[in-house]
Design goal:
By secondary structure, the protein is mainly α. Helices cover 73% and strands 0% of the residues. It has helices spanning 4-24, 28-54, 60-83, 92-114, 123-145, 152-179, 195-199, 203-213. The longest helix is centred in the last third of the chain and has 28 residues, at 152-179.
């Protein structure tokens, strides 16, 4: 738990309430400080997984905590930006889409983890996450604190719409892949094997089942 990758993940959770407090106060200074914290938190999202793999410190604790930290950070920032009306009007739609996708995918990942089925992060999902973080970064600063020569709000809003489209695509892909495994562990009604056969499976069958269900090393995050 006290490895460097895990500490980086925990720091992402720890900085979230500070980031929200800074965004609550409407001043250019707090907006820029919030951006620095948000960007740093996004950087740790890359570093924790990279260091865990290259230092041989991948752990069950890190695999569980990493996606929780990501979703906690992104969801909290979206909610506070809506609350302070930095995200408003029709732009609330992509914000809701992103939040709903995070909830759906989190629930699906939790179920698949119970039946030992890995769901690796796709390349498109990584691009979605990157674009989403960049768009939220622009909205954290906003026109209020951003440089006058840049349409900061417009850039952030556009990026959020594009991220929402990628969110729908990747979310659909995850759901299709995940639902193929839903119910696979439950035998059909009327075809359940007898108690005697279930109690004493052959060594070959047990080995085959273990081979079929053994998950590959999952990635942190996603």
């Amino acid at each position: 738990m006290t490895t460097l990758p895990n500490l980086l993940t925990l720091s992402r959770i720890g900085v979230t309430p500070i980031l929200l407090a800074l965004l609550y106060f409407h001043s250019p200074v707090t907006r820029w400080v919030a951006l620095v914290l948000f960007a740093s938190a996004g950087l740790t999202d890359f570093l924790d997984g990279y260091l865990a793999r290259h230092r041989g410190e991948v752990s069950a604790f890190g695999r569980i905590l990493d996606p929780i930290a990501d979703k906690l950070l992104v969801s909290s920032v979206i909610v506070i930006l809506v609350a302070i009306e930095q995200i408003q009007g029709l732009v609330v739609v992509p914000a809701i889409v992103i939040l709903c996708r995070e909830i759906l995918v989190s629930g699906l990942r939790e179920y698949l983890a119970e039946v030992q089925v890995p769901m690796p992060v796709s390349r498109l999902a990584k691009w979605k996450t990157t674009l989403q973080m960049v768009a939220l970064g622009f909205l954290v600063v906003g026109d209020e604190a951003g440089p006058a020569i840049l349409p900061v709000d417009a850039i952030g809003n556009t990026g959020l719409w594009v991220a929402a489209v990628l969110t729908l695509i990747t979310g659909y892909d995850y759901m299709v892949r995940g639902f193929k495994h839903v119910g696979n562990e439950t035998p059909d009604a009327g075809t359940a094997p007898s108690t005697e056969m279930s109690a004493a499976p052959s060594t070959e069958t047990a080995t085959e089942r273990a081979t079929e269900t053994a998950p590959s090393e999952p990635e942190r995050g996603g």
